[in-house]
Amino acid sequence: MAEIQTKVILVGLGGATCSGKTTLAKHLRNILPNSVIVHQDDFAPPEELLPIKHGYHDWDAPDYAIDYPRLSKFLKHVKDTGSIPDDHRSHDHLNKQTDLPIEAECQHRLAERFRVIQDQAKENDRINIVWGLVDGFLLYWNQEVIEQLDMRFLLRVPLKTLEGRRKARQVYITAMQFTEEGDAWVDPPDYWEKIVLPAYLDAHREIFEGGAVESGGLTNKVKGLVLIEPEKEDKGMSMTDVVEKCCQELYQFVRAEGLSKGVEA
Predict the structure, then answer these.
(1) How many CB atoms sit inside 10 A of residue 135's CB?
(2) Are 179 and 172 in contact (CB under 8 A)?
(3) CA triple 131-134-137, angle to 5 deg
(4) 144-148: long-range pairs with CB below 8 Å, 24+
(5) What confidence tens digit (pLDDT) does each residue in 121-159 have?
């Protein structure tokens, strides 16, 4: 009997700060067997390496806010081994978590669907599927990182909603450089207007037609990008709807890869 091979599927979950991408990643982790989360925030550089803008350290500057070579090397390790390096320490659990549940029936149904898919892939194709869920606010800026992702999702949320959530959240725990606890960062009063919003627009302008980040259609910059708009006026989506949409796309990907023979859509 052939030896079981591991196939890692890296799923990009991009979006602005406070767009719901980390919440989505955690729901998908509860549904997809053999899944791990990689938080792009964990790859921020030390504060002293950040540029100064308007008198503040700029934690959002697309070119500087993430150590892309380190992130790319990390993703390669996950892709090659199907596991998170033993020495990796995430700070995400130290940040305030928003409870945004999905319907229990949805979670159970989708979890069962993917359990069957993965059991059949292992039995019929001798393939063990591992999901790497990569969430980040600058996920589609660096081309090398983009190309490492097998599936790519982007949450687009109205700017007013993002502003309200960001200002309500305030305190962030930044990436751990020297301590297990990380460092607390509190937004100055005008940080959204001077730093966060301009950086978000700059980082995503090329993804949308005419640079219209809030309303434009997708360009070809990010191949295969799936746009999800939970608060679109005519088609509002609950978190349950968002999870359903993502899982349907992931299921279609698995089918296209030939790993779900015999599994009903």
Answers:
(1) 27
(2) no
(3) 160
(4) 144/68, 144/72, 145/68, 145/71, 145/72, 145/75, 146/12, 146/222, 146/223, 148/10, 148/72, 148/75, 148/76, 148/79
(5) 999 999 999 999 999 999 999 999 999 999 999 999 999
